[in-house]
Structure formats: structure tokens, C-alpha cells
Hints:
Blueprint: H1 6-15, H2 20-40, H3 49-58, H4 63-69, H5 73-83, H6 87-94, H7 110-118, E1 121-122, E2 125-126, H8 129-140, H9 144-167, H10 181-199
Antiparallel strand pairs: 1-2
Helix pairs in contact: 1-3, 1-10, 2-3, 2-7, 2-10, 3-6, 3-7, 5-6, 8-9
The structure holds fe (ii) ion.
Amino acid sequence: MRVPSKIECYELICRMEMMDHIVAHSLKVCQVALALADGLAEENMGLNRELIQAGALLHDITKTRSFATRENHAESGGELLAELGFPGVGDIVRQHVKLDSYPGGVLFSEAEIVNYADKRVLHDEVVPLDRRMQYIVERYCHGEDDRRRVGWLWEKTRGLEARLFERLPFAAGELESRVAAKEHRRELESYRAACLGDSG
Ligand SMILES: [Fe+2]
């Protein structure tokens, strides 16, 4: 399975003309996802760090476009990556809003890590799960059906969170302290450099 490198991800983000605030969000989700993966590394020997990195960086790859087209950005992002020759990353992107299944157990998939990481980042800030889900309710729920769907998702994600932090060597509330602002700034610079290199 081919997985794009970080720089390849940055170049693709640039080519897709992703809005700046979505770039900042994606880079933060990546930091969070890798902090989770590193915390789980001892227990979850099978986790593919490169795959998590690419899935997190590219999870909103078609979101900017979706504002105009109204496409389902999880589905279309997954399809785009499969077409580009990265079906494994596409599968993670496709499941970043809602996972195909919410199993129990002590092992985690890369898709679960990216899905949960995205639910802990509001804009480019690490926040508690409830705050992020409340934002989703306010912003994306227009009727009873939406509210029911998001309520279900909220419950399932709480379960995922509980499972994760049973295994992680730090608490859910400590996640933010595991993610350095300095590193985020450095990655933003590295993204801009990749973007300039790509267009110039
Ligand atoms: Fe998204």
C-alpha cells in the first residue's frame, strides 16, 4: 500500500487550494493523531504512523471545494485519494466523520485514531470532545434528524474516547499539553515552503 509522505500531503493540500484555516486545522489534527499514536505505540505495535499522518493531514482535502459543490467531503475525499493511488489513506478520510463500525476491544485502527483526533480539534485548538460536538450541533444541525444523527455520533465517540484513554498513558484532559504550539508553527512554515516549491 502506497502512503504519501508529509511533503507529498502538503503539495496535494496546496494543489487543492485548501483554505488557510482548514490547513491550520488539518495540521493540528495531525499533531493530535500522532500524539495518540505515540501514546499507544507500546500496546498497539501494528499502528502505521505514516498512514495516520497522511490520513490526518488529508482528512479535509475536498472540504474547501465542498462549500461550493455541496459534495459530501468525507466520501469525495476518500474517492480522490483512491484515484490518486492511495486507497488506504482514502479509507481513513472516508471514515473521518463517521466510522464504518464502532467495535470494542483493546486494539485500534488508524481510522479510529484520525476520526477521534478530528473530534478533539476545533479550528486549530485542542478542546474537550463535548465542546467540539456542541459546535457540530450548532453549526451543522438544522432539524430533528440531524440532531439525532449527531447525538448518536457523540455517544459512539464518547465510547471510543473511553476505550482510548483506558490504554493511553495520559488522560483525555492532558491531550492538549502533549501537542506543542511551537511544532504547529513549524509545520505551517514547512507547509508554506512545500506550497511555494510546488507552484514555483
Ligand atoms: Fe471534515
